[in-house]
Amino acid sequence: MLFSSGIPLLYFVFLIQTFLVYWFDKYLFLRVHRSPPRYGAELAVKSHGLMQGAPLLHLLIGFFMFSSTLIFNERKIFEASGLPNRLESLAVSFFTTSERFQSGHAILEFSAFGLILIVFIVVKVI
From CA 53, how far away is CA 123, in angstroms rounded? Predict the structure, then answer.
């Protein structure tokens, strides 16, 4: 679900995957396995620790996708010399370009990321 900002089709893939896993697990539980494994509180604690950073990672990937000038270009979508020149310089300026921070939707996304990061740090410290 982390990449849904860039590829909304993954919601449909997730739906199919969840459906298939449900039926495979149901079959295996009823026909193959006789007693389920015993899990303790340690698994829940580890899962909770891993999932705390998921919203931050989701916002960071969303910012990366929404701020890409190859996806959302506010000036012109197709320029006469655009795409070939952009792809050549893409490797050099992939993370260092300031254009990522100049569009309105990227500023909003990055502000939300910064605010949630500050709240996350404050909650972890306190």
Answer: 12
Q: 14 with 64, same domain?
A: no
Residue 32, CA distances (Å) to 18, 23, 26, 83, 110 in order = 20, 13, 10, 54, 49
Rounded to a whole number of angstroms, the distance between the first and last alpha carbons of the chain is 29
| Same domain flag for 34 and 55 | no
Tens of pLDDT, residues 84-117: 455 445 544 455 566 666 666 677 777 888 888 8
Q: Which two tokens stand for residue 48?
A: 């909770």
Domain total of the chain: 2
Does pTM top 0.70 for this prediction? no
User: Quick one: pLDDT at residue 8?
Assistant: 81
Higher pLDDT, 35 or 17: 17
Distance between CA atoms of residues 25 and 17, nearest Å: 12
On whether both 32 and 82 belong to a single domain, the answer is no
